[in-house]
Specification:
The structure holds three protein chains of three kinds.
Chain A lengths: L6 E9 L8 E10 L4 E5 L6 H9 L8 E9 L2 E2 L5 H7 L4 E4 L13 H11 L5 H14 L5 H5 L8 H13 L5 E5 L7 H18 L2 E6 L2 H7 L2 E6 L2 E7 H6 L4 H13 L14 E16 L5 E16 L3 E5 L6 H8 L7 E6 L2 E2 L5 H10 E4 L13 H11 L4 H14 L16 H13 L5 E5 L7 H18 L2 E6 L2 H7 L2 E6 L2 E7 H6 L4 H9 L3 H4 L10 H4 L2
Parallel strand pairs in A: 3-8, 3-9, 6-7, 7-8, 13-18, 13-19, 16-17, 17-18
Antiparallel strand pairs in A: 1-2, 1-4, 4-5, 9-10, 11-12, 11-14, 14-15, 19-20
Helix pairs in contact in A: 3-4, 3-6, 4-6, 6-7, 7-19, 10-16, 13-14, 14-15, 15-16
Chain B lengths: L1 H9 L1 H23 L31 H37 L1 H16 L2 H12 L3 H28 L2 H8 L4 H37 L10 H8 L8 H37 L1
Helix pairs in contact in B: 2-3, 2-10, 3-4, 3-6, 3-8, 4-6, 5-6, 6-8, 7-8, 8-9, 8-10, 9-10
Chain C lengths: L1 H30 L4 H6 L7 H10 L6 H13 L5 E2 L4 E2 H36 L4 H14 L3 H15 L17 H39 L2 H8 L4 H39 L4 H10 L3 H29 L3 H4 L1
Antiparallel strand pairs in C: 1-2
Helix pairs in contact in C: 1-4, 1-12, 5-6, 5-8, 5-10, 6-8, 7-8, 7-10, 8-10, 9-10, 10-11, 10-12, 11-12
The chains are: A alpha/beta, B mainly alpha, C mainly alpha.
Chain lengths: 555, 279, 325
């Protein structure tokens, strides 16, 4: 019985409902999961990787998706034919699962304690006190602070990382043999992601667990996988030992994906000499505080200093990256620059003109010079307007004749690599990457000098990310654009930025050329960020001070 | 052809509701031709049972033709329902749009006001308003509008709050478009679907509200209404059940049709919207 | 102790809204065409000039408007709503006599609507797409489209006139002389038709809301998590789905409280139920505006009280309330 894989997926197919864009979500996939092995299933959105995970767990959304063929063998049992009650007994006891969204995966009206203890109760641990002790033990093992008071707390008090730890605690409560993790760190900040990955690895080694880890990120794969399976359009295209797949991929699709990731790390061309160029945007001592009232008639005031005394200069033709985790204030800073938000104090000047106090025609002039590209290309284009209107509306507002604007719009479509036929179509007829190209064209329609790009590639798949970044790099060269490039991802920033400013808690903690930041980070937080980049050693990033726990992170 | 069949099966509520309303509208328009006389005038012997002596729905104790009343009453009911709903949708959309777009203090004040109107018993307020201002078509429209705008305001506010933080609206702001253009051309068209759905359901509740007011004797005395007919026939319920039963069925038919239409519209427009948002 | 804070905040809000209603009442009288004194005195004033000047003096109608408002608010604060000029008795006394009957009717209807609505809504959601769901949804649609007073009349026609099962009018048998338990049964029998009539409309509303809410919650991530943990279905339904799905139903019930009272006015009229609604109907017929406005204020207060209770219940069920307050 100890020979052979613990879990064996054999020629599994899962059918999509009629009318979907393809017949199978998962098609003919065979995949073994060995004992004490971490198997990463990698793919872009729509590859069927999550459906695969849910099928193993017997959690397919009933009438919509169904197993159309193949078997899943686990410990001599065929899972796809298992009666529901037997499956239930298996779930949580021998096979457990954690999910992507820790914010919604916990029941908001039940205490943390109840949500851990119910697993124990469901699988026969009748004694209340034993359950409680076990829950305490588990929370402590997840390195969560103050387990006794956490038992009575409700999820809304916990951060995303803490919730994911609670999820893991509940999943491991009965020491299962298999843990299925469906993108468990995708919704988390990099530093939190690193901690969670380390925790999973630590537990996996200590408890001799087998892990089926679903991810889209080859960096994460490099950090955690023993074996790798790559999926595309529902089919398995490559399977093998991690080191081999990562360093010598065989299938062209895998090669393309890995190339896209690796290219991100190539680093920007050498920073161009910018000191001589004149300053375009000057930010001095800029401040923005969010105040929210809560409690008794709003008497309890809460203040968050989103941007706290920030000073930063962007020169003509320069791209400055603004890197930080969620809540660092980077998005707020971007919105202050384009006057989507009013600042509380400090100076904000574009070519010597104060942005903060501009009104009327002067503000309109500034709007013409400073444009913005947003994160989510599905939300940034008005769903009821045709592309032509999206591209011409604003120039017309700024005095361009409709005929000129239409001609220019067609030129822009060509410039961003889209067909001119796009002009008469609606946004929903385009893919994410194409939409982002339209959004970029819109930002360029006014011939701006400065573009604020807020996470412009974060919502896109890796291969599309690379294309859009290339487009941006190309445009900025050709049009001599300056850019404030906001991102949470150092890998992305390294690809396009001349200089990088690292932000945390509303403060810029370090600023330097991309090469300096990656090669010789000065601030401890920057070093931590660099160190948290998934797949760092595989990608050969950095040369920063070695961090003590690196050994546990890499294979 | 097969597609059309599948489509109609999926949207049966819309088709049924729409069809029922079309029939009602046709009858309403035909009323002056079918029953040219004033429905409040005596045209036959009193207390004729339905289908007797050529009276489809019988007559009341004064010899008035019930069928004529039903048809003429339809016009009053539909018009009152439409006009008062139009008023409250306009009012609610205005309040909700301003509250949702400007947020902050403005939102606080307008929402407290909305909550206030939503808390007070709306039927009582309508009743007091009509009674104090003396019953007429216009006071009834006013009363219905005053008590039914708050849900619209809340709905529109919620839509505006979520839409104004969407990136395409921010893009319009960064593009330098003035506020009224952003509200009217960028946000409002995207909020229209739920407003239309709610509006069609509100016509139904407006008709119910009007019929209750008329039933209590607060209707406009110059026009016959279904609620008034039920109220008048009420004391005769033991002898002449049809006097109250038939106008009630007319109300039921109309309100059911409007509810079906509203639900059908929601089904029709929402997935479409979901698709444009996600696809 | 944020829960207490929440309740105190809500209590203060109730007081503010009540103040708003009193002010609204004050201006409603002045909105009416003609002299406020005429409005206040109803038809009684038309005949007696001396009576009219008395009314003017009592309400300070010859003083500036803000003073009039102050007088009015002060009087209402001591539950003095003036007199009913028709019946020549304090309005508050008349209302207080009738209030218990209305509360009995409204609360019975509410409990019936809530219990039936939630039970049927959950059943429909669990059998979504099957015949039970269809039957329940269609029935809800039907009752949602029927005018309440008409349902009442038809119920009288069927159960009282035709079948003779239940009494149609009043709160108890006139001259029955029952006492104790027999009187309670007698009242209960009289209650069945009006409470069911009033309740049915709200059953329809709660069914739709509960069904939608349950369906929505059962699609949420934490329900999937619970299944992945191997929790048994009954517990998933009880603790995970229902506990969350009922929150919006509570909110809805609170919002519908005002409408329920309005429905009581009509229902009481149909069934000659001796409550505040019937009193309002009588006041209407006699153009006794002062009494009508007093009824409006008092019923509003009852609704506010109901809202407050609903808020407190909500705060007990939803731990996030302290984050929202």
């Amino acid at each position: 019985m100890s020979a052979g894989p613990l879990l064996n997926i054999e020629d599994l197919s899962v059918a999509l409902p009629e009318g979907a864009d393809r017949r199978f979500a998962v098609q003919g996939v065979s995949l073994p999961l060995g004992r004490r092995e971490v198997l990463c299933v990698v793919g872009e959105s729509g590859s069927g990787k999550s459906v695969l995970a849910n099928t193993v767990m017997g959690l397919l959304p009933a009438p919509a998706l169904r197993v159309a063929g193949g078997r899943i063998m686990f410990d001599g049992q065929e899972l796809t034919r298992l009666p529901e009650e037997s499956y239930r007994e298996l779930r949580g006891r021998r096979i457990s699962m954690i999910f992507q969204e820790p914010m919604t995966a916990l029941n908001p009206v039940l205490t943390i304690g109840e949500q851990i203890e119910e697993v124990l109760a469901a699988h026969g641990m009748a004694d209340r006190r034993t359950r409680r002790e076990r829950a305490l033990e588990l929370l402590a093992a997840m390195h969560l602070p103050d387990p006794p008071s956490l038992l009575g707390a409700y999820p809304f008090r916990l951060s995303g990382g803490q919730r994911q730890r609670v999820m893991i605690a509940a999943a491991l409560a009965l020491e299962p043999e298999i843990l299925i993790a469906d993108e468990p760190t995708t919704a988390l900040d990099v530093t939190t992601q690193k901690q969670i990955l380390r925790l999973i690895r630590e537990i996996q080694e200590r408890r001799r667990l087998s892990v089926l880890f679903i991810t889209h990120d080859f960096g994460v794969v490099a950090d955690i996988a023993d074996k790798v399976a790559v999926m595309q359009h529902g089919s398995l295209v490559e399977y093998g030992v991690a080191a081999k797949v990562l360093d010598a991929p065989e299938h062209p699709y895998t090669q393309r994906l890995i190339a896209a990731v690796r290219r991100l790390e190539d680093g920007a061309e050498d920073a161009r000499p910018v000191a001589a160029a004149e300053p375009l945007l000057e930010i001095k001592g800029l401040r923005k505080t969010y105040r929210s009232a809560s409690g008794f008639f709003g008497l309890r005031k809460r203040e968050v200093r989103a941007v706290d005394d920030v000073t930063l200069t962007i020169h003509q033709g320069e791209t400055v990256g603004l890197v930080g985790e969620s809540g660092s204030g980077k998005t707020t800073l971007g919105q202050l620059v384009v006057r989507l938000l009013p600042a509380d104090g400090g100076e904000l000047a574009f070519r010597g003109q104060e942005i903060r106090t501009a009104r009327g025609a002067r503000l309109l002039g500034l709007r013409k010079s400073i444009q913005m590209v947003f994160q989510d290309p599905f939300a940034s284009l008005n769903p009821r307007h045709r592309v032509g209107r999206i591209l011409t509306e604003t120039p017309i507002r700024h005095g361009v004749t409709p005929a000129q604007a239409a001609t220019r719009a067609r030129e822009l479509l060509h410039l961003v690599g889209l067909d001119v036929g796009a002009y008469d179509r609606f946004p929903h007829e385009f893919s994410g990457g194409q939409r982002q190209r339209i959004a970029i064209a819109r930002a360029l329609a006014l011939d701006p000098e400065l573009v604020v790009a807020d996470e412009p590639v974060s919502a896109l798949d890796v291969s599309v990310q690379a294309q859009v970044l290339e487009l941006l790099a190309d445009l900025r060269r050709r049009l001599n654009l300056s850019m404030l490039f906001i991102t949470h991802d150092l890998r992305v920033a390294s690809r396009i930025c001349d200089r990088i400013a690292v932000m945390r808690g509303g403060v810029i903690v370090e600023i330097g050329s991309t090469r300096q930041i990656f090669g010789d980070p000065q601030h401890e937080y920057t070093r931590g960020l660099l160190d948290s980049i998934p797949g760092r050693s595989w990608l050969g990033i950095g040369g920063g001070a070695p961090v003590a726990d690196r050994a546990t992170m890499t294979l | 052809m097969k597609d059309l069949l599948a489509w109609s099966r999926h949207h049966w509520a819309l088709l049924l509701g729409g069809g029922m309303l079309a029939v009602l509208a046709a009858l309403t328009l035909a009323a002056p031709a079918l029953y040219p006389e004033d429905p409040l005038s005596m045209v036959g012997p009193p207390d004729v049972r339905p289908f007797d002596e050529g009276f489809l729905f019988g007559t009341d104790s004064l010899g008035r033709d019930v069928a004529a009343g039903i048809l003429h009453g339809a016009r009053t009911s539909l018009l009152l329902g439409l006009v008062s709903t139009a008023c409250s949708v306009l009012l609610g959309t205005g309040v909700g749009a301003v509250a949702g777009y400007f947020a902050g203090r403005v939102d606080d004040v307008l929402m407290r006001l909305t909550e206030f109107f939503q808390t007070i018993p709306s039927f009582m307020l309508a009743l007091v308003l009509v009674a104090v201002l003396s019953p007429s078509i216009w006071t009834i429209v006013l009363a219905i509008a005053v008590v039914s705008w708050p849900p619209v305001a809340r709905l529109v506010r919620a839509e505006f709050l979520s839409l104004r933080s969407r990136d395409f609206v921010k893009a319009a702001v960064v593009g330098g478009h003035p506020t009224h253009v952003i509200i009217l051309r960028h946000i409002l068209p995207n909020a229209l679907t739920p407003i239309i759905v709610t509006g069609s359901l509100m016509v139904a509740s407006a008709i119910l509200l009007e019929s209750a007011l008329s039933f209590l004797g607060l209707g406009d005395r110059n026009n016959i209404t279904w609620g008034f007919m039920i109220g008048a026939g009420r004391s005769m319920i033991r002898q002449a059940w049809w006097l109250s039963a038939i106008p009630g069925l007319a109300i039921f038919y109309t309100v059911l049709a409007l509810n079906l239409l509203g639900q059908g519209l929601a089904d029709l427009l929402n997935p479409l919207l979901a698709r444009t948002r996600r696809a | 102790m944020r829960q207490l804070e929440f309740v105190v905040a809500r209590l203060l809000k109730v007081v503010l809204v009540m103040f708003g209603i009193v002010v609204l009442n004050f201006f409603l009288v002045r909105l009416a065409p003609g002299d406020p004194a005429t409005v206040l005195a109803g038809e009684a004033g038309a005949v007696d000039p001396q009576f009219m000047s008395e009314v003017r003096a009592r309400y300070g109608l010859d003083r500036p408007i803000h003073e009039q408002l102050a007088i009015y608010v002060r009087r209402v604060a001591t539950l003095d709503f003036g007199e009913s000029y028709r019946i020549q008795r304090p309005a508050m006394d008349l209302i207080a006599e009738r209030l218990p009957a209305t509360l009995l009717l409204s609360l019975s209807a509410f409990v019936f609507a809530m219990a039936a609505g939630v039970a049927l809504g959950v059943l429909a959601a669990r059998r979504v797409g099957r015949w039970q769901d269809m039957a329940i949804s269609v029935t809800a649609l039907v009752f949602f489209a029927m005018p309440l007073f008409w349902v009442g009349l038809m119920a009288i026609l069927l159960f009282s006139v035709q079948l003779g099962w239940l009494p149609a009018y009043g709160l108890e048998t006139v001259g029955g002389g029952f006492s104790g338990l027999r009187r309670a049964f007698d009242i209960a029998a009289h209650l069945v038709l009006p409470a069911t009539t009033l309740g049915l409309f709200y059953v329809a509303i709660y069914v739709r809301m509960t069904r939608a809410s349950v369906l929505e919650v059962s699609r949420l991530d934490f329900v999937r998590t619970a299944r992945a943990k191997g929790i048994r279905e009954p517990r998933i339904w009880r603790r995970h789905i229902l506990k969350n799905a009922l929150l919006p139903v509570i909110t809805l019930a609170s919002l519908q409280a005002g409408s329920l009272v309005g429905g009581a006015v009509v229902t009481e009229t149909v069934f000659a139920w001796p409550g505040v609604g019937r009193l309002a109907f009588e006041a209407l017929g006699q153009r006794d505006y002062n009494l009508l406005l007093a009824i409006f204020a008092v019923t509003s207060a009852v609704v506010l009280l109901f809202n407050l209770v609903a808020d407190i219940v909500y705060s007990l069920v939803d731990p996030r309330i302290e984050a929202r307050a």
